[in-house]
Design goal:
Helix content is about 70%, strand content about 10%. The chain is α+β, with helices and mostly antiparallel strands. The chain has a four-stranded mixed β-sheet with strand order 3-2-1-4, covered by helices on one side. Helix 2 runs antiparallel to helix 3 and helix 4 runs antiparallel to helix 5. The two termini are about 45 Å apart.
Amino acid sequence: MNRTIKIALGSIAVGIVVLGLKTLAWHITGSVALLSDALESTVNVATALAALIAIRIAQRPADRGHPYGHHKAEFMSAVLEGVMIIVAALLILEEAYHGIRDPQPMDAPVNGLLINAFAGCINACWCFVLIRHGRRLKSPALVADGQHLLSDVITSAGVIFGVSMAVISGYPILDPVLAGLVAINILWSGWKVMAVSLGGLMDRAVPEDLLRDIRTTISDNADGAIEAHDLRTRHAGSMTFIDFHLVVDGETPVAEAHAICDRIEAALKRRLDDAQITIHVEPEHKAKHSGVLVL
């Protein structure tokens, strides 16, 4: 079992524990805001499970039906997470509406807040693990899960503050109003997760700083070639796909042109651990005098 799978399994376990604690906090107090926090934790468990399934699918090797691999499964998981976050926000808005119409005083608010704060601390530690290791392992599903948890941590902090103010001020209507504000924040979080993941499904190019590094690496390791043009890049899960046309002198032997391609490919793979590179060799009259010039 590799590290990515272990972290995904850990997310499910953490999600279940936090959900139990937040549900207990809501049961003790009857707070609509704490209920909203518990509802978001329900989504955490579901999305962690979806992330695990997506990661397992993404790690399958390429086959006849999927010659480019299954890497985009992680982006699909992240889109699903975004949808589920939005659904949770809409459910919270419904509860907030009913709470505003008929505000109710809370029972045992101190105990409920302490339990909720403890659950929030667990989430804070785990979201740091998910984002750090998700970026290092180039796993969009883990990063999306971590970003969702981070929004949950911020939400929990706001809920604790708002419920405390409702108790101190003696205005129970502040509780459902706060739940509504939490829902709006969750909606924004869900949209951001979906936007990033949809970009991956649409084969968006790698970030500009990485693209500059790729261009420099090609230029520095293409001795014997003339230029490289029509450079295209995209991400799919942990994989980076790179393809371009390499122009060489028309009299260059095939073996020599192949050696240049091997050298460029090796340099790019040193820069990007998980990269799939396709190079199309062309004779000199195909040069466009643009793109990547060889130093």
